[in-house]
Design brief:
The relative contact order is 0.19. The chain has helices at 2-34, 43-62, 70-75, 78-87, 89-113. With 120 residues, the chain is mostly helical. Helix 1 packs antiparallel against helix 2, helix 1 (2-34) runs parallel beside helix 4 and helix 2 runs antiparallel to helix 5 (89-113). 78% of the residues lie in helices and 0% in strands.
C-alpha cells in the first residue's frame, strides 16, 4: 500500500516543483522579453515554450522513479514512504535546473544579438 502512496507523493511533488518554477519565473521573464522592441512580439512564445520545456523536463525525470520492492514496501512506515518519494525528486530538480540553465543561455544570446534595439 505504501508503494502506491509513495508514487502518488512523488508525482504530486514533481507537479508542484514544475508548477512552482513556472509560476516564479513567468512574470519576470515576460517583463524582460517585452523590454526589447525586437523580442516583444515573440514574448508569449518564449514564455509558453519555457513552460512546456520545464513540464517535459519534470515528466522525463519522473519516468526514472522506481517503486520499492515488495519486501521493502511491507516493512516501510509512512515516514519511510515519504522519504522514498522525496529522494526521487533529486532527478526532477536536476533536470529542471539543466533546462533552466539552457534557457537562460538562449535568452542571453538573444539579448546580446538584439541588445542595440533596447527601448527605455
Amino acid at each position: 500500500m505504501y508503494s502506491i502512496l509513495s508514487l502518488i507523493l512523488f508525482l504530486a511533488g514533481t507537479a508542484l516543483v514544475a508548477a512552482g518554477l513556472i509560476w516564479l519565473t513567468r512574470g519576470p521573464m515576460l517583463e524582460l522579453l517585452r523590454s526589447n522592441s525586437r523580442m516583444a512580439p515573440g514574448a508569449r512564445f518564449y514564455v509558453r515554450s519555457f513552460a512546456l520545456i520545464i513540464a517535459l523536463a519534470a515528466l522525463a525525470a519522473a519516468t526514472d522513479f522506481h517503486l520499492p520492492c515488495a519486501k521493502q514496501s511491507e516493512s516501510m512506515t509512512f515516514m519511510g514512504c515519504l522519504w522514498w518519494a522525496v529522494d526521487g525528486l533529486d532527478s526532477v530538480f536536476w533536470s529542471a535546473s539543466l533546462f533552466l540553465i539552457g534557457y537562460v543561455l538562449l535568452l542571453t544570446i538573444l539579448f546580446a544579438v538584439l541588445g542595440r534595439y533596447h527601448d527605455e
